[in-house]
Amino acid sequence: IHVSGTVLGRIYPISEGSQIPEWYDPSVDNLAAAVSCKTQRTFNDAGDVHIAAIDCGMKFNQIRCFVNRGAKVTVLPFDSDLSQCTENFDALFISNGPGDPAQCSNVTTQISRWMEQGKPLFGICLGHQLVARAIGLQTYKMKYGNRGHNQPCIHLKTSRCFMTSQNHGYAVDASSLPDEWYELFRNANDQSNEGLAHCTRPWMSVQFHPEHMAGPKDLEILFDIFLEHVSVQLDFILSD
């Protein structure tokens, strides 16, 4: 594993007559679709801004972080078509989730269509990777992945280091980033991309989990920044 990186494994009993199970590669399946909610659900109906949240395997604390800040959140199944929704959403959030982002082309399409409206956009973890793919970037499977509560990330505009919670095996290749986008964060250990933002539009995504409560909370403020820009529809550039 130290040489080849993450590899497939299987566990089976060694006994007379036992059959060796077939290899199963979860990366060939759409795991986000498997774990997504099946029906739409709304939280905090009296909220002052309305967030559409595409559930790719969402953590409930992401919903809590929005609701605690006064937002109304409508959680949508993975395969939702936003153009068919009757609600007038103020912003789009794409959650974390398992599996290969290349399997989630339907969500990438929804992100691209949403960007045509110019409304605020925020993605976390898998959501970050899907935003990246929507703007033409590629994603790749990491050798080991970044996991744990103590992953150091550098905010590139200020060179400030934040401790983050992470659990991902895929990453964004930011080498061909469009001119109107910039890298927001980078992992201090392996230099992998940890965040993107648009230069003039209120669009941002991060690879780590700013909502994570078991470990560091340094960047939970990203929810405040996002909702502030949802409210005023201004440029979405993280400042010092």
From TrEMBL:
UniProt keyword terms in alphabetical order: Glutamine amidotransferase
Keyword Transmembrane helix attributed: no
Residue ranges of every copy of the Glutamine amidotransferase domain listed in the record: 53-228
Keyword Iron-sulfur applies: no
CDD domains per UniProt: GATase1_CPSase
Listed EC numbers: 6.3.5.5
Record pathway: Amino-acid biosynthesis; L-arginine biosynthesis; carbamoyl phosphate from bicarbonate: step 1/1
EC supergroup of this enzyme: ligase
GO MF term list: carbamoyl-phosphate synthase (glutamine-hydrolyzing) activity
UniProt catalytic activity: hydrogencarbonate + L-glutamine + 2 ATP + H2O = carbamoyl phosphate + L-glutamate + 2 ADP + phosphate + 2 H(+); L-glutamine + H2O = L-glutamate + NH4(+)
Pfam family, one: GATase
NCBIfam families: PRK12838.1
Assembly description: Heterodimer composed of 2 chains; the small (or glutamine) chain promotes the hydrolysis of glutamine to ammonia, which is used by the large (or ammonia) chain to synthesize carbamoyl phosphate.
Family: Belongs to the CarA family.
Protein name: carbamoyl-phosphate synthase (glutamine-hydrolyzing)
Organism encoding this protein: Fasciolopsis buskii
